[in-house]
Design brief:
The structure is a single chain. The chain is mostly helical. It has one domain (24-202). Helices cover 63% and strands 3% of the residues. A two-stranded parallel sheet has the order 1-2. Helix 3 (71-109) crosses helix 5 and helix 5 runs antiparallel to helix 6. The longest helix has 39 residues, at 71-109.
Length: 206
Amino acid sequence: MAGMGPAPKPGAERRRRNATHATTKLPAGGRTGEVPRWPLLDDIVMTTQRDTAQRTVDELELQLLEPTLKGRPRAAAQRKLDAARSELNIVSAQLDAARRVEAELWTELWATPQAAAWERLGWTREVAQYVRWKAKAEQGDMDAAKEARQLADRLGLNPLAMLRLRWEVAEDEVAEQRQDRTARTRPASARQRLKVIDPNAAAGGT
């Protein structure tokens, strides 16, 4: 990402060169605890569009109640009302979908290893901004997708960004020990049991 500078070397490479760079260890099992309260209001643009569409529907419905409205004017008003209702339904559905996606993403993100660092740094609103742009991106907004990618870098949501932030997921030592024990006790495979035989020795050659 522009302005962030080159990524630090991975931990293994730094250790080989005896370099000392402070890193933040993140829990492999993710952050535990309650999910923070959602800090943002509903999307202002979508909320305004919904309210405007609702007002248009209300006005047209009142207009159609006028007994003097007949013939072509009435038919025209009815077409406008149908279009306004359609727009209202679409915007309301989009707003509801955005709320659902935001709630799901918000909950998922606060269970990640990175969330432990966000909590220490107080990045609640920054994470919420990412969630908002990501929800828009999932509805096909390409500009929102660009914003979401930039915020993902800042929040350490990809390996390169984690290197730049000097964040490392702590190794799960218990799981590694379990895997080592399993490897030691697992029977050798048929390939491992095969031995390379010298054909000359087998034939009694010199």
